Amino acid sequence: MKFPLLVVCAAVACGAAPSEDSDTDDLSPTRYSMEMVRANPSLLPGVTPPPGVRVNGSARPLSSDDAKAKVAPIDRRNWLYDANQLGQFLTLADPAAFDKTDAADATYSRQPGDLFADDGKLTWLDVEQGYLGDCYFASSLSAVLYADDGGALTKSLVVPHTSGGKVVAYDVTFFQASGRKVKVEVDPDLLHRNSNGHVYYMRSTQTKPGYEEWAPSLVEKAYAKWHGSYKSIGGGGTAADAVYALTGRKTKSYLATDAGVVAAIDKAAKTGKPQVACTFGDHSGVKYPTGIYADHCYTLRGIHHTSSGDMVQVRNPWGPGAAGDAEPTEPPTADGNPDALFEVTVAQFGQLWNTVDIVP
């Protein structure tokens, strides 16, 4: 992944004003993420990125979105922002689409919705990766939300930005490689498919025709804005860097075949620590069964101890699928519910997954 050459300068010299919070900076060209430093260590010579393996990223197939095109629109009259209220939001610069094809397939617009769904919060099951190869980020976001369980990190991740008593934008907070935070301001303009009006990149599983939960989309949009464009984050990346951006904590990396990895996954789940597992690349020689994909990262949920052996619990960041999907979101399961939540044996995990990143 390539980033534009950034010139290092002091915040004052660059004209970047500090945020109201003493540990938080406003966005500027010198706010480096761990991903930027990994690509160009000279940006912050004193910072060492956490161990981690880069994946090329598997986007959620457009075919699965087409299958949802027939979902009936929601008759929702109590959303917070209807079409007549969307004009109160600022019109901010939007990150460019991944490439010319995406730019031709989708157009920025703002549609009625809320920051959060009816439950009033962002949850790990809300995350649905879109047609962008940032599974490393989507799975990390879901993992952090799962571990935080509605705590301080979740509540401060994306918050309304008000002016004159009205919400005019949203502030998304990440952690820079330096350890300080950076605040990225975004508006609710999202790329929507020209064919059916659906959100093109990351969206909430609660989003339906006629109603959008903006929070997951805005977190991804802010990450893209920080890095310059959707192209900068959509061609793969490293889960360790994404987890750091979301938590400010470095992960410990394991091979999926390590003797202590099952115990580490079990402990992390019980102590509320984010964890992500990524598969081997397309050219690794590993043959993947239906519903599990190469070059793809998954949220780890924990270990299910059964009488016949331990099972590793994972979630595909593509989110729920539909029966008959050409590229199903999970392997065939006994319950027949393609909700992206499934289990594999420890042996299968060691055979099909490559690395595991866990916040210790």
Please tell me about this protein's structure.
The radius of gyration is 20 Å and the shape is globular. Helix content is 23%, strand content 23%. The strands form six sheets. Strands 13-18-14-15-16-17 form a six-stranded antiparallel beta sheet, sandwiched between helices. A four-stranded mixed beta sheet has the order 1-8-7-6. It contains ten helices and 18 strands. It folds into two domains: 56-237, no CATH class; 246-358, Alpha-Beta Complex (Cathepsin B, Chain A). The chain has helices at 34-39, 62-67, 100-105, 135-148, 152-157, 215-227, 230-234, 239-247, 261-271, 346-352; strands at 24-26, 54-55, 106-109, 113-114, 127-128, 158-163, 166-175, 181-186, 190-193, 203-204, 212-213, 237-238, 252-255, 275-279, 297-306, 309-315, 341-345, 353-358. By secondary structure, the protein is an alpha+beta fold.
List keywords for this structure.
360 residues, alpha+beta, Cathepsin B, Chain A, 2 domains, 6-stranded antiparallel beta sheet, 4-stranded mixed beta sheet, 10 helices, 23% helix, disordered N terminus
Summarize the amount of helix as a percent range: 10-25%
- Judged by helices, strands and strand pairing, the structural class is alpha+beta
Main β-sheet description: 6 strands, antiparallel
Number of helices: 10
How far apart lie the N and C ends? Answer: 27 Å
Kindly state the mean pLDDT as a whole number? 91
Fraction of residues in β-strands = 15-25%
Shape descriptor: globular
Q: Please give the radius of gyration in angstroms.
A: 20 Å
The count of domains is 2
Low-confidence stretches: 1-18
Element pattern in H and E: EHEHHEEEHHEEEEEEHHEHEHEEEEHE
Number of strands: 18
**What is the strand arrangement across the widest sheet?**
13-18-14-15-16-17
